[in-house]
Amino acid sequence: MIHTDISALNTQFGITDQVTFIEGQGGLITIEINNAECSASIVLQGAHLTHWTPRNQKPVIWLSPAVDVAPNKAIRGGIPICWPWFGPHPTNADFPSHGIARTGHWEVIATTALTDKTQVSLRLIKDPNKNELWPYPTTLECHFTLGRELEIDLVSSNTGSEAIRIGQALHTYFNIGDIHNISVIGLEDCFYLDKVDGGKRKQQQGPVKVSAETDRIYTDTDADCLINDPEYQRQIRIEKRGSLSTVVWNPWVEKSTAMADMGGNAYINMLCVESANAVDDVRTLQPGDVHHL
Ligand code: TA6
Prior knowledge:
The chain is mainly β. The chain contains 2 helices and 22 strands. It has helices spanning 6-13, 252-258; strands spanning 19-23, 29-34, 38-43, 48-54, 81-82, 106-113, 118-124, 138-146, 150-158, 164-166, 168-170, 173-175, 183-185, 191-194, 200-203, 214-219, 225-229, 234-238, 245-250, 270-277, 283-285, 290-292. The strands form 5 sheets. Strands 5, 11, 12, 14, 15, 16, 19 and 20 form an 8-stranded antiparallel sheet that branches. Strands 6-7-8-9-22 form a 5-stranded antiparallel sheet, with no helix packed on it. It has a 4-stranded antiparallel sheet with strand order 1-2-3-4. Bound molecules: 6-O-phosphono-beta-D-tagatofuranose (TA6). 6-O-phosphono-beta-D-tagatofuranose binds next to strand 19 and strand 20.
């Protein structure tokens, strides 16, 4: 059942002082989470987490200061869910970049209060108007566990009778003190496709540093990544399973200025490190297969 009534959602899935459904930015239904360890927000459209802040920490997730939260529009920042393809559609340039999930309608499966964390489970609602984009019987669920750590389990199930190919990413925007001073540890010696240099295959020398537009798909890596942020005096660890490709992106000043929902200097305080199934890490799901990212 598609819940469009906030009071019905609060009656069925609200948890006093921990999970509240509100009408948020752009009039979109937003889930506010508060517990002993963190506060967070998830916009129901796109199952799009926009805020996650552990207690006594600066926000870990970045949201554009010029964000434009609106129906059927991708949100600049947070954790966009790219699915069932990553980047441009493999064959049809008219199809939306990064797939259909991040602007799709999702419904609540369950909310659960645990000792020091909260679980929120959402499911993408099959949109008959998007059959041309994705005609295959597939379910997509996203299970968030929010506390001192943030765990996201994106579950694709092939419920049809033919094999399907799933490309995807948790396209996470991290909040950092200054792009000029950070480094990403964990991708040393990995090979990557450099999308800023015609997709050329290169090998990472040392920690990743950013001093210009950076758009790289690291391949054949299941490594944890560590964003070292001396400005905010912290390290953010990104662990992943079910993924052998990691994307690192910062648009730098020209692209940042050109994006209306980002603006000139916004690039200084963000870095995307994305756990993905992209390029040759796109996954084939046979009928009945389930994949967890
Ligand atoms: O993940 C990096 C990337 O694929 C970049 O190429 C850039 O397009 C970015 O995603 C943002 O894409 P979006 O469609 O959200 O503007």
